[in-house]
Amino acid sequence: MSRAPRGPLYAKMAGIFTLCAVGGPALMYYVTPDPDTLFSRFSPELQKQNLENRDRRKAEYEDFRSKMIEYSKSDKPIWVAAAEAQDKARLEIQERALREDKARKEAKRGMREEMERGG
């Protein structure tokens, strides 16, 4: 029982691998439009809206990036550190809302007392 030579099989596999490894990214490069070309195809309203929101999006990205860098410095996984930061921010918002509500009630009470004294 003799075996068929495996050289042609390996050559065919190497050719298919090369075609996929080089041809796939080349096809994506060819098919994907240039960002400037894509922007020029937008309607004038979308171009205007995109330009107006560019600074906001850039600031949000920088904020996100700085938070991820801060979270990565922790010993904990990033998602745990992010969840803890969200919990802390939520508590701060609740505390601020309680303080504002208390100040609002105090101001109302002060106005009511003033009305009673003046009336």
UniProtKB/TrEMBL annotation:
Q: Which Pfam families match?
A: CBP4
Please, which domain of life does this record's source organism belong to?
Answer: Eukaryota
Keyword Membrane tagged: yes
Keyword list (alphabetical) reads: Chaperone, Membrane, Mitochondrion, Mitochondrion inner membrane, Transmembrane, Transmembrane helix
Record localization: Mitochondrion inner membrane
Q: Name one GO cellular component term.
A: mitochondrial inner membrane
Which processes are annotated in GO (biological process)? mitochondrial respiratory chain complex III assembly
Membrane-spanning ranges: 9-31
Map out region (Disordered) in residue numbers.
Answer: 100-119
What topology does the record note for this protein and the membrane?
Single-pass membrane protein
Spell out the family assignment given in the record's similarity comment: Belongs to the CBP4 family.
Function of this protein?
Essential for the assembly of ubiquinol-cytochrome c reductase. It has a direct effect on the correct occurrence of the Rieske protein, core 4, core 5 and apocytochrome b.
The entry's protein name is Cytochrome b mRNA-processing protein 4
